Fold these 4 entries.
Entry 1:
Amino acid sequence: MERVNEAANFAAELGFKARVFSQPSIHKLAYAEIRSKFGLSAQMAVRAIGKAVECFARDKSVCPIFKPHGAITYDERIFSFKGLDRVSLWALPQGRILVPLVYGEYQKQRFDRIKGQADLVYRKGRFYLYATVDLPVGAPVQPSDFLGVDLGVANIASDSDGRRHSGSHVKSVRHRHRRLRRKLQKKQTRAAKRRLQLLSGQERRFAMWVNHHISKQIVAEAKRSGRGVAIEDLKGVRERVKAGPRQRAVLHSWAFSQLRQFLEYKSRLAGVAIATVDPRNTSRTCSRCGHCEKKNRPSQSKFRCRCCSYEAHADINAAENIRRAARKPAVLNDVPSSHIS
C-alpha cells in the first residue's frame, strides 16, 4: 500500500510538471521508472498511475499528494477470491498472498454477485476490502399514486399518510457528542486523545443506522400499497438556507443526502418508482385549497391556511403537497434498468 501510494505521487508529479493528465500520457512518462524504482508489478504500476489520473480528472490546477496508507485499487488481474473464506492479493515482496476473510451474513448472501475491482482500505489497524455488488432490481411497477415524503430536521421524515419519524433522538445524540468532543479537545491530554479516537465515527454510524431504518420502512409501505415514493430535490439546500450560529451545526450535520440515497437505491431494488419534485413553497402551500402564503405557517410544526382555515402538522401538509406534485407525469424519473450496483 505504501509503495503504490509513493508510485502514485511520483506519477502525479511527473504528469503535473509536464502538464499532461491522461492515462496514456502519464503512462508513457512514468511506467518504466515506476517498475524499476518501486518494484511494482505491471498491473499494480498501471493502477498507481490510474490513481493519479483520477485526481487530475477532478482538478488539474493542483498536484495531488497521497497519504502512505491511502486506499489502493485491485482489479481482477491482481486479486481473486479463493472460496468463501480467503482472497488472493498481489503484495510485496513475494507476490501473491492468501489472506483470510471475515464478513457478516449480509455479505455472505451476496458473495456470488461481487463484480469488477475492489478497494483495499486501511483503517484503525485493520484492512478492509470494499467490493461492489451487482444486484437485480425488482420488477418495476408503474404507480397510480405516490407516498409523499418531506425531509426535515425536527422530523427526519414525514409522509403523506401522516407518519412522522422524529429527529429528537438523533439531535440529542449529536449534541452530546459535540459537547463531549469540545470538552476533550480542550484538555489535550493523552487520555483525552484516546477517548476522542474511540468516539470517532460513532455519531456517523448511529445516523446511518437511523437513515437505513427510516428508508426501509418508507419503501416497504410504498411497495405494500403499490405506490411510488416522492421526495424533494434538496440539492444545494445548505447554500440556500440561511441559519443563525446556533442552527448551523444542526443544519450541516443533517444527513438528508444520505437518507435520499438510501430511499433511491432501496426503491429501485424493490421495484418502487422514485420521483423528485421542486421543494419551493411545499411547506407554505395549503394541500387542500392551494393557497400559498408565508403566514400559513405560524410555527415550525403548525400549518394553518389563512384562506380556508385548514389546519395540519406542517410536515404532513408538505408531504401531501409533494405527493400531489409527483402525480404530474413530468416529474417521474425513468424506470430503473435491470440491475443496480
Entry 2:
Amino acid sequence: MPVLVGACVLAAVAWIYLLAAHGGFWRTDCRLPVGGGRAEPGPGDWPSVVAVIPARDEAAILPETLPSLLSQDYPGELSVVLVDDGSSDGTSGAAEALGSMPGAALKVIRGEPLAAGWAGKVWAMAQGVAAAGECDYLLFTDADIAFGPGTVGALVRAAVTDDRALVSQMALLRADTGWEKWIVPAFVYFFAQLYPFRRIGRPGARTAAAAGGCMLVRRAVLASAGGLDQIKDARIDDIALARLLKRPPVAARCWLGFTTGVRSRRPYPRLAELWGMVARSAYTQLRYSPPLLVAVLAGLVWLYLLPPVAGLAGLAALAAGAGTGPAAWCAAAGLTGWFLQAVTYVPVLRLYRLSLFRALGLPLAALLYAGMTADSARRYHAGRGGAWKGRTIPL
C-alpha cells in the first residue's frame, strides 16, 4: 500500500507540473502570430506561393477540398501542384476536372515510381517542389485538407510580419462519429503534450514540430537546409521537416498553432481506421526502441490510469470503513490527479465543440492509445509497419 500511495502522490505532482510548467500544452489559444516587427506586404508585394499536394487514391475527397484552395482570394501569386502518387482511382482526372474552374491555377503531375531510400510521401513532396518552379513560399498540405477563405493570406502575413521560415497550423480533424469523438481530440491533445506549441515558437527552443496538413515554408530557407533530400526517408515528414529547419546552422524561426480555418475532411467512421492511423507511425515516433516503448506504456498507465483507479478504490475502501490512513491518501491523490488531467483536456474538447464531461474519460482514451502504440510495435516487428493505401514502407 505505501508504494501505491507514493505512486499516486507522484502522479498528482506530475499533473501539477504538466498543468503549470509544461509549455501550456493544454491551451488552444496559440493562434497565428501577426505584427512581430515587420510590415505587412503592400499591394503588389505579396510573396508568391505554390501549394504542393501529394495525393494517393484521393479522387473521392478532392471535390470537398481542392476547390477551397484554388478559390483562395490571395493578394499575390498562388498556384497549386498536385502530385498523383501512383493512384488507381482516377485521382489525376478528378483533380484536372476541378482545375478547369475559372481562375484556377493547377498543375497535375503523375508521380514517378518510388525511388530507393525515399519514403512515399516525402518523394511525392519532392516532385511537387521540383514542379513548382520559382516561388517564395511552399505550402505543403494534404488532399483531405480544406482551407477557409483568406487562410493562405493569413499564413503568409504571419510568416512575413513575424519573420518565420515555417508557419504551420494543426488542422481541425473530423470528429463526427462516436469513435472520432473519443480518439481524435485525444490525438491532438497527446501531440500537443509531446510538442508544446508555445515552445516550438520560442526562439532558441529545441522543441520542433509541425502539422503536415498545413506547413508554409520559405523556399530559400528550405534550400539552405539542404532541401527535402535531407529527410527523404522520414516516415513522419512534418516532425522531420521542422527539425531540419530548426537545427543549426539554419536555426530557422518556426511556429505551430491551432486553427478552425483549416479542416480535414477525411472520415474515420470505424475504430479500425482510427486505430490504423495511429498505429501506422506511433512506434516510429519512439524510434523503434523497445525500452522506450515500455517506458511510454508504463507512463500512460501511471499518469492516466492509476489516478482514477486508485482514487475510486480509495473512496470504496473509505466507504467500507477502512479508516483514514493509506486509503484516504489514495483517494485524495488519485482524485486530484484525475481532476487535473481532466482540466487539461477541457480546452481541446471546447475546440471540437464536445461535451466537457468527456474530460473524465481521458484515461480510457489513454488506454486506447497505449493499445495502438503497442500494436504499432507489433506491426513493425512483423514487417508490416507504415502500411498506407496498399503501400508498405520498407523498414
Entry 3:
Amino acid sequence: MLSQKPWKPELVLRLLAGLFASMLLGVLIVNGYESLAGEVGKRGRDIFIFIVGVFSFHGVGLVLVNVFLRQHEISWAAAFGFKSPRLGRTVFLAIVVGVFILPIAWELSDLSAKALRFFQMPVEQQTAVQLMQNATSRWHLLFQGFAALIIAPFVEETIFRGILYPTIKQLGFHKAALWGTSIFFALTHGNLMIFLPLVVLAIILTFLYETTNNLLAPIVTHSFFNAANFVYLLWLKHKSGSL
C-alpha cells in the first residue's frame, strides 16, 4: 500500500508551471535554431531537438523536483521509499513486470498502427526512434541510450508516479489520479502510435508503485522497457548494416 505523501498542491502546481515554462522555452529555442540555420542546419536538426527536449524536460524536471523536496524538507529516499525493506524482491518484481508488459505493448503498438492506417492517418515513429534509426554516430547512440535507460525513467517516474499521482489521489480523486496521470504521461511523448501502449504501461507502473511503496520498482520496469526497445532498434540497425 502506498504511504501518505506530504505534497502540497500549490507546490505541485508550481513544479508543473516551471516544467511547462521550460518546455515552452525549449520549443522557442528549436524554432529559433531552425529559422537561423536554414538548410545548412537540417542535418543536425534531429539530434539538436532531442538534446533540447531532454534538457528542457528531464534536466529541468530533475532540478525542479530537488527544489520541491527541499520545500517539503524531505529527502529523496524518504519521499519515494528508496530505503524500503526487501529491495531485492522489489527489483525482481519490477523485472518480471517488465518482461510481462513488453509483448503487450508491442501488440498494442501494432494495433494502433493498423487503426491509424484504417482511418488514413499518418503512422509515424516517435522522434527519438526516428533519430536512432538515422543516427550515424556512436556518440549520438550512446547519449540516446543514456537518456532512454537512465534519465527518462528516473525523472518521468518521479514526476508522474512519485508526485502527481499521490497528490491527486490524496485529494480524493482516486480514478482521476490513475487515469489522468497515465493519459498525461502518454500525451507527453507526442506520438499517436504509442499512445495506447504507454497508457497501459503507466497504469501498470502505478499499480507497481502502489504494491511496493518504492518508486524504484516502476523506475526499474520503465528502464527495462526502454532498454528492450533500444536493444531491438540497435539489432535492426546492425541487421541493416547501418551500425
Entry 4:
Amino acid sequence: MRLVVIAALAVVVSGCGGAAPQDCPSSPRLDLSDVDPNDDTLSFQYPLDVVEDPPQDADFCEHRAWSGGMFHAAEDYWRPPGTEVRSIADGVVSFSGRMGGYGWLVIVAHPEMNAYSLYGHLSPSRWRVEPGPVAKGDLLGYLGDEWENGGSRDEPLVAHLHLGVRAGQRTHYPGKGEWRWMAGWIKQCPSDLGWLQPSAVITAQTIPIGGFAGPAGGVVERWWTELLLVAAIVLGPVFWIVRSVRRRKPVSLFAVAVVVGGVAWYLTTRGVVLFAPIYLTAAVGFVAGVVILARRPRGNPSK
C-alpha cells in the first residue's frame, strides 16, 4: 500500500508527465500582414507597430533542446527596447506588475470571448498601464531593455514581446505549476492546457469554439502545487496560533498576524491565486490577540 501511495505522489509531483515533441507539434506563426490595426470592425489586432518577424522568434508549441524538454506556450516577437505594445482586443487589465523572468507583465481579460491575453518582457522603468478597462489598440507599455525585461546586466535578455492567448480567465488557473496562468515554457503540451496560438486567433478573428472550452484538468491536476504551497504556509501558523491562545500570549498572535499577512501580500504580488486562506489565517491570529488582550485582568483594585 505504501508503494502505491508513493507511486501516486510521484505521478502528481511530476505534473502527470510531459508530452513528446511529436504529440505537440510546433505551429509556425501565420501571416498577419493583412490584419489592419486601423480597422475598427476587427475584434483582434496585432500588438506591435510592424508585422515583421526575425527568424529567431520562438513559435507556439516550439520545442528546443536548451529548454529541457519544454514547449513554448506563446509566440515571441523580437523588437527594439521601447517598442510600443498594444492590447490585441477590448478587455480589462487584470494584472500589471513585476513578474520574475517576465520583467513587467500585463494580463488583459476578454470576458466576452472567455479568454485572456498575456504580454511579457515589458519595461518596468517606462510608463505601463494600470489595472482597468482597455480598448483594442490601447497602449499597455513598452518593451524593456535587455537588463530589465527579465534579464540582468550579467545575463541580458534580447528585447522581445512574449505574447500568449488562453481560453478561460486568469483566475481559472493557479499561480504555480504547469497550469500556472503566466506560463512561458512548460513540460506539457500548451494546447492541452488551454493555450491558443496568438497569430491563429488574430487571423481568424475569433477564439476557437469547441477546441478548448475551458480548463480540462481536474482540481487536483491544476491546483495541487498551489494547494500544497498554501497548506504549507497555513498549517504552521495555525499550530502557533492555537499554542499562543492556550498560553494566552497576545504578542505572539500579533507577530503571527504580521508575518503571515506579509507573506500573503508577497504571494499575491507573485501571482498566487489561492491567497485568501493565508489572509484569513493572519486575521484569525490578529483577532485572537485582540480578544485575549481585551479579557486580560486589569489588576486587583485596592482594598
